[in-house]
Amino acid sequence: MSPSISPVSKKINHICATLIAYWLPVLYFLIATAFYLKTYDSAQIKITLIEIGGVVLLAIWLIKIIESDSFFFKRSLLVIVPLVAYLLSGIFSYWHSPFPYASANELVRRIIYIGIALIVISEINTEEKLRRLMNWLIAATFVVCIYGLIQYLDYKYFPAPPELGLDPFIWRQAFGSRIFSTFGNPNFFGDFLVVMGPVVLALFLRTKSVHLLLLWAMIAFNVTYTYSKGAWLGFAAGLLVFAFLVVGFFFKSRKGNTKKILFIMAAVTMLLVAVGTRHQLKGRPDSSSFRVFTWLSTWEMIKTSPIIGTGIGTYYVTYPSWRRPQIFFIESKHNTETDHPEDEYLEVWYDEGLVGFGIFLLLLGMFLKLGYTNLNYFSSLHPDKKHADIRAYYQLGILTAVAAQLVHNFVCVSLRFVSSGVMLWLMIGLIGAINVNNPLPEKDAPEPGPSPLPLGVRRVLQAMVLLVAGYFVWIFYGYFDADLNHNMAISYSKQGQWDQALDIYKEVARENPSFIMAPYFMGNVYNDRWAAGDGELAIKKYEDVWSLAPNYVQSRHQAGLIYLKGGEDEKTLAEQSLKKGDTRAAQEHESRKKELWRKALIEFERYRKLDPIFPINYYRMAWIYLQLGESDKAESVYKDHLNFPATLQRPPHNAWVEDWSVRRSGEYAETTINLGNIRFMRNDLAGAQKYYEAAIQLNPSAIVAMKNLAIIFGRTGRRDLVEQMWLKIRSIAPQDPDVQKVFHNPPQ
What we know:
Elements: H1 7-33, H2 44-67, H3 71-75, H4 77-95, H5 100-123, H6 127-157, H7 186-207, H8 210-225, H9 229-249, H10 257-283, H11 286-302, H12 315-318, H13 326-331, H14 344-379, H15 390-408, H16 418-436, H17 455-494, H18 498-511, H19 517-529, H20 534-548, H21 555-580, H22 583-610, H23 615-627, H24 631-647, H25 665-681, H26 685-698, H27 703-715, H28 719-732, H29 737-744
């Protein structure tokens, strides 16, 4: 310690260093193990922990930095530069982003992630601190693996919900046979295990501790039963890299069983993963086709601004305009969002352009190279591997973990999810820490020298750090409370308690103005309640949604529905005015009706461009055209719906060719019936018959089409066909009221 440093500064530095040394590992333990099922998103607790916990960490570290000299930055410059460059890339990307709220959320996480990496490089400067951090990570891995085993046993041997099982929590069996532990998603759980597997195996290689071998076996078991092909790939890649590094650095002169065992273990793992992945692809090919179409859409998005990108964190906002229609066939639903492209590299390129993507790749390359250099140096310090430097084994596990996770992130998850992102930046920080803090003392870290800043300046800066940190802690707690309140508001909505739901949604929007769902759900509540003035209020809420995300899920369709319902109300008022003899009022309502229905058609058409296979959207457009007396346009709309799947056989949609209409044959049968109905209304019985028969070809149980055919046969004097058709209907739906009526009173 420099003699010029004051006792107060020494005390502040010591307190800050101690807080970081304990809070960092505890924070990581909590992020891995914590979940809270009363919020809308069970992972919100992890997000809140990294936001609040990360801010607290950064504040403590900055206070320490202000209180001491800048020696850390001088001796770590080469390691720090790529991290700072990637942070600056995120700031620049935020600066030119068209969606500041979306970008701000992602930028905050970028700052925290880079901050954690810098803190680790600076503060994990003794073997004791490194060992403490690893012990907490291993403890977290034990917890999540044990809960994963509980979930496996729960699915295997206990009844499905709502019956009670071994897993006591409400989300039990949420993914069927796939286990997800405390992460709420099998892919997130798999990513954590992909990272921790090599770390645990490396420490076992050094210590030969049975509990670590048991833990690695549990990791392998849990990875398997996530049924995540990406996790399998990352796990296998990690084991393969691990085997080659061990042989290359630890047993290069040994020709005994160790080499053979490692190579056999890696080879068997790769074989099993290949066989399992092939089996899963055959059983669940949609996960692969989903990725293909998502990646194609993402590449098209990248080409809109390939150099500087669109803006950090904006992917989920802009993706709906580019999403391939096949995704709706694959997901079998429409009110859904894809937040990330299942490939971190494509997302970085889209968000930050070739410049940011290049910085990202440079950063990864530099730290992988640094880890390799560390491993080469530390593994050569002692020829006796039983007493080799522990840092060699730490570096072996960490380097392999980074490589395995980066492979996983090619095909799955995203580093934007907290449970994945925190692990990569921790491992990158540890690579830097092992390099910078050489030699690594057991306990006594080098003490910093005095700060060059005057005492008054230091205290002002530290007070500012505390104030800013306090402000962000308050903001991020508000985000958590907003998620909790959002869940409560949904409950009130389901119970039809509209006023209570709206009051809480307003609080959600106040606490987290970037939360798109709050105004969207408020618009839906006004839509469902439909009191006087609710139509206008709903549209205003959807406009709030569009200011955050112009094409958010079904908001365009919902806006069209508002105008449609408003037009129906005007139609009713027109009819009432006519009954009263007020023709002028009737004409005004009639004019207003048409105006609202035209607006509805505009919104429905906007939604069709985003989701060209949603049947209800077509049906509502056709209904409006029929009400307006434009049956030709209604018929054209139905045909557009019916003919759309054929367009997916041609470029640019034919990357993955199949007859997509088969997946929704019931919907297309209904559309075909509607076309038959239009022909029937025109008294074109031959044309109607053709469509009804086509509907039965699409859906052999389409009894509506069969009933309509029976009517046509009756009108055209084909009594034998009428009887045959009703017998067929009875064989399909014997309890149908019309069947009961016909066969109780058979037609003469």
